[in-house]
Amino acid sequence: MPDVETVTGPVPPSDLGPTLPHEHVFINLLREYRQVGLLNDEEEMREEVAAFAVAGGGTLVDVTTGELTAGAATDPLGLFTGPAGGGGSQDGSRTPANVAALARVAKATGVHIVLGTGHYRDPYLDRDWFDRRSVAEIGELIVRDLTEGIPGTGGVRAGLIGETGADGWYISATEERSLRAAAHAQARTGAALTTHAARWPVGLPQLDLLTEAGADPHRVIIGHCDKVNLPEYHLELARRGAYVQFDTLHECRAERETAKRVGYVMNLVRAGHLDRVLLSHDVCVRDHLKSRGGVGYDFLLTGFAAALSDAGLDKEEIRHLTETNPQRALSG
To answer: Is the pLDDT of residue 67 over 60?
Structure first.
């Protein structure tokens, strides 16, 4: 299998170790979460990632797109400083300062960090920018990040596409163009493509659109499936070949939330879809951090794995979920 691109260079899939396929390290969500939506303290985030390493973690996939690295007034380290102080560049790239900080965290903790590229969802998308460009143009900018490197970073390449997706139960016109561009880039590069599909079963129309636009459904990861309490939805996604990602383990501070997610996983495993399940936390606001009372990045390995074991999975099946599946998803 081909190497996986990280912020510190290519890594063989066999060296990735336990992998979190959907996380955020530095992110600006103040538009929606005014009190807790900014993660920009490098020391704090280094400690959070280090806890994952201590638990045995090997790789973290940061699916923060350029729209989520927009400049913030409270940014003492300048991680979100971009053109004219606006954070991500006009074409949606990550900011060089943000990528450099991720590389420092990776080197300090020993955790491999994989970057996403592409565009997020409404209300973060610049509709005017999308209206003025074709799907192919937008897609080729994503291809550039994957094959040549993110501008201003000294050649650091993204390792997957996303997260990209839809904010509601439907796909808006701008989100459709974004998803088509992502499919264009996926078809050109073979990279994995990960989506945002929370609260509603919008992952199915996303998969329809992406497949029609040329993406390989076996390289598509439908995100936030544990936010949709419809087991048949999970099964249909798996039947169609997509990865079903239960990635909001940050909610597992409550025992009932852990039990619900264990049930989702066991439902797919019993139906013969062990290979199509991915697990992660989606750490994205301060309340999710271990230092702030959240589960942090290590709960999958320190708590959720034990709950899966109690439900009947053996060590090899758990390793399949935490290592084999994300490694295959990233490397193809």
So the answer is: yes
What are the tens digits of pLDDT across the range 212-223? 999 999 999 999
Round to whole Å and give the CA distance between 225 and 270.
17
C-alpha closest to that of 57 among 100, 11, 110, 6: 110
Tell me the fold of 116-331.
Answer: TIM Barrel (3.20.20)
Domain boundaries, the chain: 116-331
SS3 letters across the chain: CCCEEECCEEECHHHCCCEEEEECCCEECCCCCCCCCEECCHHHHHHHHHHHHHCCCCEEEECCCHHHHCCCCCCCCCCCCCHHHCCCCCCCCCCHHHHHHHHHHHHHHCCEEEEEECCCCCCCCCHHHHHCCCHHHHHHHHHHHHHCCCCCCCCCCCCEEEEEECCCCCCCHHHHHHHHHHHHHHHHHCCCEEEECCCCCCHHHHHHHHHHCCCCHHHEEECCHHHCCCHHHHHHHHHCCCEEEECCHHHCCCHHHHHHHHHHHHHHHHCCCHHHEEECCCCCCHHHCHHHCCCCCCHHHHHHHHHHHHCCCCHHHHHHHHHHHHHHHHHC
Across 121-135, 141-155, 182-196, the highest mean pLDDT is recorded for 182-196
Q: Given the structure tokens 């490098």, which residue do they identify?
A: 42
> In one letter, which amino acid is 214?
G
Average pLDDT, rounded, for the chain: 93
